[in-house]
């Protein structure tokens, strides 16, 4: 049974996680993300209910947004975290990150905006994203 409150978006987003208890910082990769939580790799020492500060930087921005989260599930490659008491500004940040607004006119702009949510480590993956944007997002967003 899936107990998630909101749908997850697959991604390959790098974030900085800092333990609230010990202040230890580490880089982690977010594999899926929603407005209520995320799944992060590389948190082998995390325990359920551990608190973390999560620093997320949007592409092209120098400043990062810091959010509070706690561990709700731990498994072998990583753990699931839920965001704690998001402000309206923090909620809007996540919404804009997960659902970027693109007018559909400049394909390169769309690739940059949507690329953060895709695993584009290979040329083939980049070409797939470009193809998806050209055929799906472009036509749907122009009507908006």
Describe this structure in words.
The protein is α+β, with helices and mostly antiparallel strands. Helix content is 28%, strand content 33%. The protein has three helices and six strands; from the N terminus they run ββββββααα. The chain has helices at residues 88-98, 107-115, 123-142; strands at 9-19, 25-33, 37-41, 51-56, 65-74, 78-83. Strands 1-2-3-6-5-4 form a six-stranded antiparallel beta barrel. α2 (107-115) crosses α3. The relative contact order is 0.15.
Show unreliable segments: none
Task: Tell me the strand order in the biggest sheet.
Answer: 1-2-3-6-5-4
**What letter string, H or E per element, gives the SSE order?**
EEEEEEHHH
Largest sheet: number of strands, sense, barrel closure = 6 strands, antiparallel, barrel
Task: Output mean pLDDT.
Answer: 77
End-to-end separation in angstroms reads 35 Å
Label the structural class: alpha+beta
Shape: globular
Tell me the number of strands: 6
Please report the number of helical segments. 3
Helix content: 25-40%
Q: Radius of gyration over alpha carbons?
A: 16 Å
Beta-strand fraction estimate: 25-35%
């Amino acid at each position: 049974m899936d107990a998630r409150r909101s749908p997850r978006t697959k991604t390959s987003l790098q974030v900085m996680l800092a333990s609230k208890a010990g202040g230890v910082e580490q880089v982690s990769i977010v594999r899926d993300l929603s407005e209520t939580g995320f799944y992060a790799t590389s948190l082998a020492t995390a325990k359920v209910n551990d608190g973390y500060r999560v620093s997320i930087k949007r592409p092209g921005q120098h400043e990062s947004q810091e959010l509070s989260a706690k561990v709700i599930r731990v498994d072998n490659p990583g753990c699931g975290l839920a965001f704690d008491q998001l402000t309206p500004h923090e909620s809007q940040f996540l919404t804009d990150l997960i659902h970027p607004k693109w007018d559909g006119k400049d394909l390169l702009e769309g690739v940059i905006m949507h690329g953060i949510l895709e695993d584009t480590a290979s040329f083939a993956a980049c070409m797939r994203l470009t193809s998806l944007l050209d055929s799906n997002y472009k036509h749907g967003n122009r009507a908006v």
